[in-house]
Amino acid sequence: MVEGGHQLADKTEFTECWRRTSESPYIMRLALSAGLGGLLFGYDTGVISGALLYIRDDFEQVDKQTWLQETIVSTAVAGAIVGAACGGYMNDKMGRKKTILMADVVFMLGAIVMAVAPAPWVIIAGRILVGLGVGVASMTSPLYISEASPAKIRGAMVSTNGLLITGGQFLSYLINLAFTKAPGTWRWMLGVAALPAVLQFVLMLSLPESPRWLYRQGKEEETRVILSRIYRPDEVEKEMKAMRDSIEDEKAEEGLIGHSLGQKLKSVWSNDVVRRGLYAGITVQVVQQFVGINTVMYYSPTIVQFAGIASNSTALALSLVTSGLNAVGTIISMVLVDRFGRRKLMLTSLIGIFASLVVLSVTFNQASHHAPAINKLDSLSFGGNNTCKAYTSAPNLASWNCMQCLHEECGFCANSKSEVSLLHSSTFVFS
């Protein structure tokens, strides 16, 4: 926890934030340097969606086996789970700064491994390393920002991390699009991720440790020196006192509930207020994941191609709309969250998500029922170029249409002029 708990930003706080950072650019430097961890998180989320299109082109086994595609995508998430679980312990033992530096090193190694990968399993290994780095950074970056920011603008500073996450997703689509014609395509897309990690590593070397962590280690003079660079001269002692009181209360609570994991869990479940808060927090997080946004971000270009767009670069360009609106939504939420409240804004967002999912379901259902039939003569006339074995060996070719081909992972439907679309009436299947 930070002094007084985690404060979310309101309009007044953003005004104060602008005033404070104008007086002392050092504060913004702290926030943006640590916030690059959010950028790494967002970039990793978005970059694989475009890179996967070209990985499938380079490795036939990945193109033909969907479980390999799913593994390449999901191993980063698995690594992030482990990284986030270890991040808390690392933060307490090593400090926030060293933890971020270590996460950057792991992320850089993962990006390099993916960029030079000679086989799919090496890409998977790189994805695991990247996930570990992202998992650690995703929890450490906002923690460092909150502890190294003045209390009056803490919420506004922490909000920059969320903005950088969605900004990183949008940036990943732009970079994917930029490398569609470059030799190596997906290798550049994945390898470029090392650059922000290197940048954050260099910037963090010149920044101090979290003042709160230093105070807990008994380093009061170092804490005071750092606070003097963050706070106004007349606020330093007041913040020192607030930090002292907060940490003493925290240690007292730890003494009551115990220091072991078992004792802490027992205390959580026996406290009605904490238990209800835990239920609410877990429910919100689960619902957020089950709406499908991660699937959209990871497979957006693939989904666009399933809608009939064959070109990888065109699919990536259209996917920019999704990531761009995601970033815009983050900005809107930052502006409106304190005007309308957290609960109302969340419920309104869920209604919009529900409506969007219904529209998508109806659209794809209609496409399935009205997809044009496949012409046997047009398809089989391409001989060896027709690689959809499921179609050529089907007992009833007349019953097939474009959507069925997509479900069989044949690739796309196209007419004899190779104009790929779900709208052409005379089609063949190729991959």
Key structural traits:
single chain, 431 residues, mainly alpha, Growth Hormone, Chain: A, 2 domains, two-stranded antiparallel ribbon, 20 helices, 2 strands, 76% helix, 1% strand, disordered N terminus, disordered C terminus
Protein model, in words:
This protein is an all-alpha fold and 431 residues long. It has 2 domains: 11-207 and 291-363, Up-down Bundle (Growth Hormone, Chain: A); 376-430, no CATH class. It has helices at 11-23, 25-58, 60-64, 66-94, 96-115, 120-147, 154-178, 186-191, 194-205, 211-216, 220-230, 236-257, 261-270, 272-290, 293-306, 312-340, 342-370, 376-380, 389-392, 402-407; strands spanning 412-414, 428-430. The protein has a two-stranded antiparallel ribbon. The longest helix is centred in the N-terminal third of the chain and has 34 residues, at 25-58. The protein is elongated and about 85 Å long. The relative contact order is 0.11.
